What we know:
This protein is an alpha+beta fold. The longest helix has 14 residues, at about 110-120. The strands form three sheets. Strands 1, 2, 4, 10 and 11 form a five-stranded antiparallel sheet that branches. The chain has a single domain (about 5-190), classed as Cyclic phosphodiesterase (Cyclic Phosphodiesterase, Chain: A, Alpha-Beta Complex), CATH 3.90.1140.10. It contains four helices and eleven strands. The chain starts with 5 loop residues before the first strand and ends in a 15-residue tail after the last strand. The protein is globular and about 45 Å long. It is about 20% helix and about 40% strand.
Amino acid sequence: MDTLCKLISVNCQLITLMRLFIAIxxxxxxxxxxxxxxxxxxxxxWVKRAGYHLTLSFLGEVDSARVPALTAALSSIQSxxxxxxxxxxxxxxxxxxxxxxxxxxxxxxxxxxxHQQVERALVPLGFPPEDRSFSAHITLARLKTDxxxxxxxxxxKHRDWRADPFPVTAFHLIESTLTPQGAHYRIExxxxxxxxxxxxxxxxxxx
Length: 207
């Protein structure tokens, strides 16, 4: 496997750890628009263009030997293709010093249903669902210090920011390799969505 990875010796066996997540890729022109939102905020670490993803699930460091099982589980998901519209700037946490700036999405039941299917597919493999509700977003920047005035100005300026809808025809298992120059991303496997499938949305889901 041509990848930078972490090797750990356990019981005389060599384990290759891969930093994995499941996400939807964005069109190049949309990445260009997001990159254009970068501005001067003290101690803000802005995500590079290659790092824009709509994350469905972050798996963390996973033994590479588990990738075939992950791929098989995710391949079983049946979901229709759909469109997503990015809209509105926000922050995490909602109060106090902001640590993350993001662009959200308009409510899309098919996206919520896809996230739910991904979570259900992962549970038998030992990946429990997150405790918090799914909040679809694209991370723009991470902040190391409190820059309340600049953050509020950014949010006010881009509160009604909106992009044209983009089609989602697949989701991906992606490896993230951390280097001194920043993260590098590689798609390990892609999972096409099915035109004829119906979204499986549970009643208590939230955007």
